[in-house]
Amino acid sequence: MSGPVLVIELAEAVPHSAIQELREFLVRSSARFEEERVGKYDLNIRAESLGITDTEGVDRRRPILVSVMGPGIGDEAIFDAEHGDQGDQRPLIGFAPTHAVDVIAFCNSPVDHVVTALLTAAIMDLIGGVANAELREDQVPIAAGLPGVVATTTNPWPAAYGSADFLRAWTKQPGFRLLK
């Protein structure tokens, strides 16, 4: 896994009906779709399904893993490991995450960063949540001024928390890039 990653923090488990909507959206948007378990999907997302018309010469089918995780859905150990070193997120986002969705790109071209952000935004449109985006230090002031930002922090590392609108606005910034 060499590409960018975004996490959607959730205050509660994703209802089965929302997971079904997510699955249907991913099937429609993908050139290849494999369901490893309910809520965990290995796919090749079609960039154009997210409104991306310029892929800078790379294949329009981008390999992505989408994984809903937490108690009762799966990948609980990964959820615990990812959230164990984050500290209390309540002051930043208003809740302590009980579940999350990881959106992981397997490639690292500029289009993979845009696909990851826009796919994460589209998933948030379906299931809600708050995006947790790790940042470089120089990105904190840029992210802080974007619409849909809930909070930014530099401790324990630079990050921005925001809505789907935040992710869409961020992709339009010059030099947009996610962290791995």
Structure description:
The protein is of the alpha+beta class. Helix content is 32%, strand content 28%. An 8-stranded antiparallel β-sheet has the order 2-3-4-5-1-6-8-7, sandwiched between helices. The chain is globular, with a radius of gyration of 15 Å.
Brief characterization of the structure:
With 180 residues, this protein is an alpha+beta fold. Helices cover 32% and strands 28% of the residues. It is globular and about 40 Å long.
Keywords:
alpha+beta; 8-stranded antiparallel sheet; 180 residues; 28% strand; 8 strands; globular
Strand-helix topology:
Elements: E1 5-10, H1 16-29, E2 30-37, E3 40-46, E4 61-69, H2 76-84, H3 90-93, E5 99-105, H4 110-127, E6 130-134, H5 140-144, E7 149-153, E8 159-162, H6 164-171
Antiparallel strand pairs: 1-5, 1-6, 2-3, 3-4, 4-5, 6-8, 7-8
Query: What can be said about the biggest beta sheet?
Result: 8 strands, antiparallel
* Strand residue content: 25-35%
User: Into which percent range does the helicity of residues fall?
Assistant: 25-40%
**Total strand count, please?**
8
Number of helices: 6
Structural class: alpha+beta
The radius of gyration over CA amounts to 15 Å
Unreliable spans are: none
Molecular shape: globular
Give the neighbour order of strands across the main sheet.
Answer: 2-3-4-5-1-6-8-7
Mean pLDDT: 92
Task: List the helices and strands in order.
Answer: EHEEEHHEHEHEEH
Distance between the termini: 9 Å
